[in-house]
Amino acid sequence: SSLNLNEMETVGSTDRVNVVVQVTHRNATKTLRYLMKKDGDTKKVTSPVLETMPRQDMGSHRTLTAFIEWGMEKYPAKHYMVDIWNHGSGWEKKQAAGVVRGISYDDSTGNHITTPQLGEVLRAASAKRGSRIDLIGYDACLMQMAEVAAEVADGARWQIGSEEVEPGKGWPYAEWLTWVAAHPDADGAGVGKALVETFKASYSGGSHGTDTTTLSLVDLDRVDELSKAADTFVDAVLAEKDHRKQLVEGIQASQAFDDPTHHDVCDLVDQVVKRVPAAAVKQSGAALKAAAQAMVLATGRTGSAVARATGLAIWAPT
Q1: 3-class SS of residue 285
Q2: What angle do CA 290, 295, 300 make, to 5 degrees?
Q3: Which 8-state DSSP code applies to residue 165?
Q4: What angle do CA 171, 44, 200 make, to 5 degrees?
């Protein structure tokens, strides 16, 4: 986290943009709230500490809610973005191999924010604000999923995250915040698109070197359309009882990620339609693919391992 905080300090806050952070450093006994300020020191965090609290459980959704509400009260703005760091693992309907899906794992307490709790947090923040948060972002792994999007759509307008595991360096805060500071009137979609572009550049031999990455921005107003299209496609596929083997082969052949049950929506459709030759599958597949493409507003990828990633993953059993 110190690396990212120092990156933020190359830009800091301006008279039009406030960057506020809540962080608990590993093994620390206190939780700190910072207002990020520009400095010339890339090794040391010099931003003013606004509040020092006894160590908070960073895996509790109540901690996140309190921080968002404090931030909105202390720093009123036309646009709000919430960025959650740390491990992410997307969504799954059951607990598998001791991994429970969610984000913001607190290494000390062992707690984390579950995906449904994330929805609760954003709904509460939106109710307090009177409208949805502009942008929810995950500087974490495996969070750009249809299931996560569906959970938070009531509380946020756009979502940014990665289908794949993210490299340890995370987002390129220096380059991205340079853009944000220069465009203080940008809405969540504008800020998200800039992050997708700067992220891709930073891992294409840029500031963060070269690595395998995905990052995308999705329109949460399109969740219902995607959900209905997914239901229709699944019904069509399951009706093809003679083609179960081909269905499984299609899923297995599609672009998957570090969690092998996460599959790229568009590639999943392509691979299944290729193998299950029914008109209803083809038709509903085309509709699902169109819904996913309409939902993804910006996507960037680096590395051949994710060559068929198109910006939105979905859970599929293999």
Answers
A1: helix
A2: 105
A3: P
A4: 15
**Which pair of structure tokens corresponds to residue 27?**
């093994």
pLDDT (tens digit, 9 = 90+) per residue, 101-160? 788 988 888 889 999 999 999 999 999 999 999 999 999 999 999 999 999 999 999 999
Asked if residue 249 lies in contact with residue 275, where contact means CB atoms within 8 angstroms, the answer is: yes
Phi, psi of 244 (to 5 degrees): -60, -45
Comparing CA positions, the residue from 2, 89, 101, 104 lying closest to residue 43 is: 2
For the chain, where are the alpha helices, taking DSSP H only?
Answer: 2-8, 61-74, 115-129, 146-152, 173-182, 188-202, 223-239, 244-253, 265-275, 279-295
Can you give the pTM of this predicted structure?
Answer: 0.95
Give the integer Cα–Cα distance in Å for 267 and 244: 18
- Name residue 139's beta-bridge partners: 85
**Sign of torsion, CA 291 295 299 301?**
negative
The burial of 73, by beta-carbon neighbours within 10 Å (0-12 exposed, 13-18 middle, 19 or more buried), is given as exposed
256 beta partners: 263
Residue type, 148: V
